[in-house]
Specification:
Blueprint: E1 5-9, H1 17-26, E2 32-34, E3 37-41, H2 48-65
Antiparallel strand pairs: 1-3, 2-3
Helix pairs in contact: 1-2
Length: 89
């Protein structure tokens, strides 16, 4: 199903969703946070160039945020593995 909603799970990055929202806002991309995730929406008028600009803003935000602190895991909370989801290994 096609959707205009994208959620980014930022657990394990060493920064919470509000941190990412602030970093992205500084780059001109406005997002919301829901349940510890970054929520992004597109509009029918957003072009492929607009999406590319948002992705470039994410890259700049990641560069500014720096590496995850020692002990942070990719998919789980710092120091803990991610919870298993039904149907996923």
């Amino acid at each position: 199903m096609a959707t205009n909603i994208v959620f980014a799970d930022v657990t394990g990055t060493g920064h919470n969703a509000r941190d990412w929202a602030d970093l992205l806002a500084a780059e001109g991309v406005l997002v919301t946070t829901v349940g510890g995730r970054v929520r992004m929406l597109t509009h029918v008028g957003v072009s492929a160039d607009g999406i590319a600009a948002a992705l470039a803003a994410w890259h700049r935000a990641v560069a500014k945020a720096g590496p995850a602190p020692s002990g942070a895991t990719h998919a789980g909370a710092p120091g803990r593995p991610a919870a298993k989801r039904p149907g996923r290994e």
